[in-house]
Amino acid sequence: MRSNPVGVGDVIDTPPTTRTAALAIAASCVLMLCLLAVPAALGRATTVRAHAASTYITGISDQQTELFSNPLFAQLHTKIVRYAAPYDAAVHGDELAEARQWISDAEADHQQVLIAFYHSNHTPTVMPSVAAYQSDVAKFIKDFPRVHQYETWDESNRGNVKHQFSSPSATTVAKYYQALRRVCHGCTIVGLDVLDAQVITPTLRYIQEFKREVLRLRTVMPSIWGLHNYSDINRLQSWRTSELVKALGGQVWLTETGGLVRFPPDFLNVRGSGIARAAKVLKFMFKVAGEHSRIKRLYIYDWTGGTASTTFDAGLVNAKGEPRPGYVVVCKQLHAAHCSVKTVED
Q1: Residue 5 pairs with which residues in a beta bridge?
Q2: Residue 103 resides in a domain
Q3: Which end of the chain has fewer CB atoms < 10 Å from its terminal CB, N or C?
Q4: 222 vs 34, residue with greater confidence
Q5: For residue 96, what are the contacts with CB-CB under 8 A and spacing of at least 6?
Q6: Which domain holds residue 206?
Q7: Per the domain annotation, does 123 fall within a domain?
Q8: How does pLDDT run across 288-331, given as a tens digit for each residue?
């Protein structure tokens, strides 16, 4: 995932291995705000309201190239994957090399790649000018001519963590969206990508402000919207997803979603409890997605799990690439063969 994981209300994406520890700290600061007051009765799932049945396709969001060499991934036969890249990756050799390797492996595996841009790892607290954003993403797009699907800014409403990273305002990300449209002709663009959070009022306000700015800019309103509904489904609830899908309108892609194995202090993995909980959440995740006709894609974050010292862990497999119960849930949902594999509790 990207440099600053965000999840259950603001986080998720495990960064490249060289930056994992620092990014996990940043992610903790943000996610902590969103994961407070987790209901004690997590097992009491909120009833999903009836909607027209959705037909959606499922893929994986992950930052590690090990994804493509794991036979467990191959047997799922998924055809869509997602990678988060700094908006200025094309002008930094190390990050460009990482993106090139990941995308090359994905394309060799015949995967359709979705790229989510996010803040710079070199100046994470500084939002680029529209001109700088447009110039840097144009270079990235030119470097990868077979990639035609992009997100303007990953989890743009996640907020700021002092001295760690900043996020764009709704009006700024609308301008970035317009800039991306200028340089990515014929591309499929997820115009706005947001987190649900435990309290969704600020997220709803952010969506409204984005739409007002798009209208003011007289550019085309996005037809595809991104949503990360970690906070909702990891509480085994669905009302946040319903409200946000309605507010976004159009086609919605769950560009990140999944079950938390470990995210202290509220989500722990004591004697395998987090692994079992994540499997239950993943099953609920599919149910919620299936109840919304506007949800057309679902990217599970993520594939690669961590160790006992990892702050954020939502992996379908453990750090050694061995299957967890959550993997079996996904495998059976996708009707893959040989899903009865021996799982591990790390």
Answers
A1: none
A2: yes
A3: C
A4: 222
A5: 89, 90, 143
A6: 17-36+55-333
A7: yes
A8: 999 999 999 999 999 999 888 888 899 999 999 999 999 999 99
